[in-house]
Specification:
Blueprint: H1 5-25, H2 27-36, H3 41-60, H4 66-80
Helix pairs in contact: 1-3, 1-4, 3-4
């Protein structure tokens, strides 16, 4: 089975945006992470976002058509946000 870094990194970047919005707006999650793990929840979201960024860079090498190239650039852009 061929690895499809491009598609997986795009899906992961969408998930990271959702995690960011949940972690940034929920007071309960912020209180839970700070009391149980003594780490801010946005730091927890930062790790998969950085991994998503590097996987989207890996996905750039297999971009063979315009749609996959646009998807790669969009996943890199979403990771920067």
């Amino acid at each position: 089975m061929k690895e499809n870094w491009n598609l997986y990194s795009f899906a992961a970047s969408i998930v990271c945006i959702a995690l960011f919005l949940i972690a940034a707006t929920s007071e309960w999650i912020r209180h839970f992470f700070l009391s149980q793990f003594t780490i801010h929840p946005l730091t927890v979201v930062l790790v998969p976002t950085v991994l998503c960024f590097f996987s989207s860079l890996l996905g750039m090498k297999e971009a063979t058509n315009a749609i996959s190239s646009i998807r790669s650039f969009m996943s890199i852009g979403i990771s920067f946000i």
